[in-house]
Amino acid sequence: MSGRYSNSEKMLERALKIIPLGSQTFSKSIIQYPSGVSPHFIKKGKGSHVWDTDDNEYIDFVNALAAVTLGYDDPDVTAAVKKQLEEGVIFTLSHPIEIKVAEKIIEMVPCAEMVRFGKNGSDVTSGAIRLARAYTKRDHVAVCGYHGWQDWYIGSTTRNSGVPKTICGLTHSFTYNDIDSLYKIFKEWPDQIAAVIMEPMNTTEPEDGFLEKVKKLSHKNGAVFIFDEIITGFRFSSGGAQKYFGVIPDLATFGKGLANGYPLSAIAGRAEIMKQMEEIFFSFTFGGETLSLAAALATMTKLQKEPVIEKLWSQGRKVVDGVKNLIGKHGLENILSSAGKGCWSFLLFKDTNVYSQWEIKTLFLQEVFSRGVLTIGTHNMSYSHSNEDIAKLLLVYDEVFGIIKEVVDGKNMNKWLKSQPLVPLFKIR
To answer: pTM, whole model, 2 decimals?
Structure first.
C-alpha cells in the first residue's frame, strides 16, 4: 500500500478489526470520510493546523466537531491543565475548581442559576430531559435538532436500532421555523409534554420570532423550554445563542467549546428546576475531573478577556462571503449553497440530474483533502484561523469548484473519482 494516505489506510485496516467503524465517533468514521482518498488518523495539532499519520498537513475547519474554539494546544489552556495535573486529576471528594467553573458559567450564561457537569453532550441533554420529566411529572418530549445518542432522542430517528419501541413513542419531532408543527404535538398529547428541547440554530436562521413563539407555546402548555447549546454555546456569543438571540430558556446544555476540546459538558438553568438534581440520579465518577474543569476555566476566562467571539465571526464572515462568491463565479448555484452563521457555516450539496449530492460531496472531499484542507462541508471557526488560512481555503475551493463544474457539465465523474461515493447518511440535522 502506497500513496498519500498509506499509513492512514494501514491503521484503518487494523482499527476495523477491533473497533466498529474503526472510530469511537460516528462523525469521524469511514461513513463520513471516503476510504482511499481521506486521512483517517490525526497525530497532532497546533493552532488551526493538524498533521495526519502520513505527515500531511491540513488547515482544520472541522476542529474536532466544533469542540475546539481557541485552536489546538492553546497556550493558556495547556498551561492551566499542566498546573492542575501536578495537583491531581480526580479525588475522593469534590475539588474547589468545580465551584469556580460553575460560578463562571453563571456569570456568563443568562439562564444559569445552578450548574451540573457531565462529560459529553449526550450526558447533559439526557440529564435535562430527566430533570424536565421529574419537574413536570410528564413523559413525552418534543425535539428539534440533534440531541445525542441516548435512547430518549435517538429512538425518534432512523438510527433507532436497539431502542425499545415504548421509548421511541415518547419523543416527537417538530420542524424548525414551523410553529404549527409544534402546536400539533401539544394538541395530540395534551398535558403530556414534559419538555421542548431544540438547537436554537444550525443551518437556518430563526424567522418571524420563531424562538420566542416556541418558548411562549411551551410555557402555555406547561412544558420546560430547553436550548441545546452544545455547539452554539460559547460560539455564537460568550453567553451562547440565548444571549445572541435574546431568548432565555429554562434550561440549557453546553459542551464542545466549553473547554476547548477537553471532555466537559454542563446543564445550567433555573434553580427551581435544577434543584430536582437532588432527587433524580445524575452522577458520574468523572463528573468532577479536574483537568477538563481547568481547561474550561481557562477557556471561558479567555473568552472574556480577548476578542475570541468577535474573531470567530469576522473571520467566518470572510469564509461565508468568499464561498458565496465562488459559487457564483463557477455557476454552481443549483449544486452548492452556503448556510449558517459566520462562526459556524455550512457548504451544502444538492442532487443533479446526473449525479447525487453524495457523489459530488465525495469528489469535493477527495480534492480538498489532497490540497491540505480538512472540512466535511462545515466551517467551524476557531480563534486561531488566520487570514492566510482563509485565503488558502478559498484558493482550494476555487480550484475544486472548477473541477465540480467540469465534472457535472461533462458528465465525467468516473474520470475524477478515486473512491466509492459516500452513501446517504443518518441525517442528524
So the answer is: 0.94
